[in-house]
Amino acid sequence: xxxxxxxxxxxxxxxxxxxxxxxxxxxxxxxxxxxxxxxxxxxxxxxxxxxxxxxxxxxxxxxxxxxxxxxxxxxxxxxxxxxxxxxxxxxxxxxxxxxxxxxxxxxxxxxxxx
Length: 114
Description:
Lysozyme, single chain
């Protein structure tokens, strides 16, 4: 019984924490806390400004503009620099899972490009 109560509390806490990261768009993707923490590490190494807009690289993760177009959700802006940080985190998780074999760059210090 004690285990079930602990499991229920854990699930409720996860739902509450995750709900904090839902954006204003009605059906926006949810970004779990663990994804947000990993994305922040990439951000610290790649680009200090979440809203950077450049002719080739943009956003807080310093992505090539074509990469953003490939991994963003259809309703997200066409330039990463115009996307909210949590949307950028969602796209980063999508990239990591689809292309990067689950590997998150920059988790143990800045290790160059990915």
